[in-house]
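[step 3/7] inverse_fold.run input=structure_tokens len=209
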């Protein structure tokens, strides 16, 4: 399959689910103190009463103004691949009802079928299937950004590659470029920063005679 067709397939898979997808705007990350009930007061990794370790990475969702918001989630102990697979399942499931009530949405289709295919030297290879929502190319960088920022919030993961049928899929970066190299959190850093707004000056009304 050609690189262009693989990119199109990625668009199909990671394209927007029709409901709960925010519109254009800025990007920030929510402070832990803004999450109710003290759900994120524990450190990134903490020991339970039984001695097992609970890792608390972040799931990245979109606000109505396209703010990228990281929310702490608890994944069970075990190997890094097991933790990554748990995060992929949560991404595919989308925000919870409570998170949607707070205005959070996603650019990842619930039919994306994301699955971990390998993890080597800190780089996670994530399989993208060939079925999903209708393609919306201009929103695809948001979906990939959610994926990359979420998985790299696991301490042992430093990069992500999209693969299909064992081949690397060209992935979109903010600004329109594509790449087949491992995607880093820094590649999508601009999704965290507020975008400049253009002020418009009202046109003076013509005098009436």
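[step 3/7] decode complete -> sequence:
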């Amino acid at each position: 399959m050609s690189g262009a067709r693989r990119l199109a397939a990625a668009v199909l898979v990671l394209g927007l689910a029709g409901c709960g997808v925010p519109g254009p705007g800025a990007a920030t990350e929510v402070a832990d103190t803004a999450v109710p009930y003290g759900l994120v007061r524990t450190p990134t990794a903490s020991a339970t009463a039984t001695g097992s370790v609970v890792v608390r990475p972040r799931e990245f969702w979109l606000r109505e103004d396209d703010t990228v918001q990281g929310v702490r989630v608890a994944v069970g102990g075990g190997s890094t691949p097991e933790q990554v697979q748990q995060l992929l399942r949560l991404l595919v499931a989308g925000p919870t009802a409570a998170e949607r009530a707070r205005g959070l949405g996603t650019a990842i289709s619930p039919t994306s079928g994301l699955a971990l295919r390998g993890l080597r030297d800190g780089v996670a290879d994530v399989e993208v299937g060939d079925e999903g929502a209708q393609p919306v190319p201009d929103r695809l960088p948001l979906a990939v950004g959610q994926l990359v920022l979420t998985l790299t919030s696991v301490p042992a993961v430093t990069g992500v590659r999209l693969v299909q049928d064992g081949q690397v899929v060209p992935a979109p970066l903010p600004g329109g470029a594509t790449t087949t190299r491992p995607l880093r959190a820094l590649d999508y850093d601009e999704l965290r920063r507020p975008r400049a707004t253009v002020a418009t000056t009202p046109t003076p009304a013509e005098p009436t005679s």
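[step 4/7] annotate
The radius of gyration is 19 Å.
Helices lie at 3-14, 80-93, 97-101, 140-151.
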